[in-house]
Amino acid sequence: MPRFHLGDPRGHFSFKHGDAVGFKTAGGHVDPENFGRIVDGWQDGQVSGSRSAPVYKVEIDGHPGTFFNAEDLQLQKLSREDLIRLKIHRRWRQGYPRYLVVAERLAPGQNPTLIPAFGPGTGHLCAACDDPISPSEIQATYPRSQGDPVRLHERCDQIWREEE
């Protein structure tokens, strides 16, 4: 039985290489630990006959080199904002401060800057989406009493605040 790989026009694929997807739970929601980008896919079957459901290989976001396989119906395509929201929630589960301003206000002996500094990007990675913030983009910078400041794209900062 021939095997069609992702991108082969003879296969019937709902997703393409690089699509952001999440694994759907029994309740139909995206599993907050199993989301990422499609890196490969295949489908077994005849050109004009029956075929198996396509299977996709997904690299788990935040865990390079770690993958899961899933069929079409087990995956949900994610918008860029959906992907950022999932990453933000994962950051919080990993101990990142949920309320950036409040977390600084509660730091002992620290007089916080209550308003983040906005300016051109500095090339650092965004704490929400993991993409670099280029000088042509607006960067929100939250100083922290310990560790590096939290840097976010302007839109990622808005999403973070919406999720708080």
Structure description:
It is a single chain. The chain has 164 residues and is of the alpha+beta class. The protein contains 3 helices and 9 strands; from the N terminus they run ββββββααβββα. The chain folds into 2 domains: 76 residues, SH3 type barrels, CATH 2.30.30; 83 residues, no CATH class. Helices cover 18% and strands 30% of the residues. The longest helix is centred in the middle third of the chain and has 14 residues.
Brief summary:
The chain is an alpha+beta fold.
Attribute tags:
single chain, 164 residues, alpha+beta, SH3 type barrels, six-stranded antiparallel β-sheet, three-stranded antiparallel β-sheet, 30% strand
Q: What topology does this entry show?
A:
Blueprint (H helix, E strand, L loop, with lengths): L2 E3 L14 E5 L5 E15 L10 E6 L6 E5 L3 E3 L2 H14 L6 H6 L11 E4 L17 E5 L7 E4 H10 L1
Helix pairs in contact: 1-3
